[in-house]
Design a protein that fits this description.
Bound molecules: uridine-diphosphate-2(N-acetylglucosaminyl) butyric acid
Mean pLDDT: 96
Number of domains: 2
Largest sheet: 4 strands, mixed
CATH architecture of the largest domain: Alpha-beta prism
Helix content: 25-40%
CATH topology of the largest domain: UDP-n-acetylglucosamine1-carboxyvinyl-transferase, Chain
Distance between the termini: 6 Å
Radius of gyration: 21 Å
Structural class: alpha+beta
CATH superfamily of the largest domain: Enolpyruvate transferase domain
Number of strands: 23
């Protein structure tokens, strides 16, 4: 048996939806807490399965973890140094943040190769080069990494690509290293700033986050503190697209609009009507004579690769030909085949998709091949004629808090049930 989300399309959405804390910040903030010597309270934690998997890993490390709705208290005071080789590591890619955090804390770590969405090859060579530059010796055997350093010594690290994961992981290892670490060509995503903010509150000395060059002055001790997570810009972007696709008047609350500038300007270029009001955005859907647009995914503040997938669904309804060019994950196009099953007309080229619109979408059984493919299919289902059944729901639950409930509150018809495989 397998679980599906079933959505009956064509119902106009109205009302308010509140955006949760940022998944991609949370999945780094939680491993970062192990660096502290006292308890850390984090507020605004999204209720998603990635958080539950990280809590399992923390408990394996003998951290005390109390989850109370959107708040989590983590006390690493009585941590034990053990290898992270359980199945929980495989559940999400971000378990690799325990590499940097535990290396920083204990100067050694054993961890299985992390899992996560398949978006084409996802190497971690830049993370490893950073750890080696700080003094770690690394071996890899039977799907497991062994990292060990006599001591970590600050140094200058140039990233060949401004990788989100490598920037955060190196930061986590460097905050307790001896001396000064400089990360050049660092990534600038808001989630990195959020992680640096927590580390700074814990006592770390970090300058330059949000620029190309991050400087970290190692400290000996990091302490407990509290932190509130920034809103999830990708969840927010997904609901902006949902509201444009199927909404009449939808208010999306708890947004930092600057984090979404590239999406907002593309939606405006398409002809979507919206107003930014403080930390909310009001989207007026219903007008469907959208113009086609050209999208090229870029590192932040460019157009986010994670939003390319749900926006593609909207582009199936634009009048004319749109193009999407992927520069971050060149194979991130699995959603296109699923959308074509529902009536879209998308052709694939070298790291590009060409979307011919408009075409009617019709409900079908489709597969969420990865998290944001799932989001793209939810957008399609809300617009399609009839019922769409989306399989591999666990991908969606990894990153979207209570998506069924949020959509039902807006007036969508959503249910879940089991089907035989
Ligand atoms: N890369 C390397 N070597 C490395 C690291 C990255 O070649 O050592 C390449 C990757 O293969 C990819 C590019 O660099 O082609 C970008 O990777 P990056 O490290 O920036 O991404 P990530 O840290 O693996 C995070 C998010 C992704 C998001 C990307 C890009 C988390 C847990 N994941 O991944 O989010 O797409 O940044 O912004 O923060 C998602 O939320 O659905 C998701 C996949």
């Amino acid at each position: 048996m397998a679980e599906v989300i079933a959505i009956e399309g064509g119902r106009p959405l109205n009302g308010t939806v509140r955006i949760s804390g940022a998944k991609n910040a949370t999945v780094a903030l939680i491993p970062a807490t192990v660096l502290a010597d006292g308890p850390i309270d984090i507020y605004g934690v999204p209720e998603i399965s990635d958080v539950r998997a990280l809590a399992t890993l923390l408990r394996e490390l003998n951290c005390e973890v109390i989850i109370d709705g959107e708040n989590i208290k983590i006390d690493p005071s009585h941590m034990k140094e053990i290898p992270l080789t359980s199945d929980a590591v495989n559940k999400l890619r971000a378990s690799y943040y325990f590499m940097g955090a535990l290396l920083g804390k204990y100067k050694r770590v054993t961890i299985k190769m992390p899992g996560g969405c398949y978006l084409g090859p996802r190497p971690i060579d830049l993370h490893l080069k950073g750890f080696e530059a700080l003094g770690a010796k690394i071996t890899y055997e039977d799907d497991t990494y062994y990292l060990e350093a006599d001591e970590l010594i600050g140094t200058q690290i140039y990233l060949d690509f401004a990788s989100v994961g490598a920037t955060i992981n190196i930061m986590l290892a460097a905050v307790k290293a001896k001396g000064k670490t400089v990360i050049e060509n660092a990534a600038k995503e808001p989630e990195i700033i959020d992680v640096a903010n927590l580390l700074t509150k814990m006592g770390a000395k970090i300058r330059g986050v949000g620029t190309d060059t991050i400087t970290i002055e190692g400290v000996e001790k990091l302490s407990g503190t509290f932190h509130e997570i920034i809103p999830d810009r990708i969840e927010a972007g997904t609901y902006l697209i949902i509201a444009a696709a199927a909404g009449e008047k939808v208010v999306i609350q708890n947004i930092i609009p600057q984090h979404l500038e590239s999406l907002i300007s593309k939606l405006k270029e398409m002809g979507v009507h919206m107003d930014v009001v403080g930390d909310s955005i009001v989207v007026y859907g219903g007008v469907k004579n959208w113009k086609p647009v050209e999208i090229t995914t870029q590192i932040y503040p460019g157009f986010a690769t994670d939003l390319q997938q749900p926006l593609t669904t909207l582009l199936t309804q634009a009048h004319g030909v749109s193009h999407v060019k992927e520069t971050i994950y060149i194979e991130r196009f699995k959603h296109c085949e699923q959308l074509n099953k529902m009536g879209a007309s998308i052709t694939l080229g070298d790291a590009t998709s060409t979307i011919n619109g408009p075409t009617d979408l019709v409900g079908a059984r489709v597969e969420a091949t990865d998290l944001r493919c799932g989001a793209a299919l939810v957008v399609a289902a809300l617009m399609a004629k009839g019922v769409t059944e989306i399989t591999n729901v666990y991908h969606i639950d990894r990153g979207y808090e209570n998506i069924d409930h949020k959509l039902i509150t807006l007036g969508a018809r959503v249910s879940r049930y089991e089907i035989s495989e």
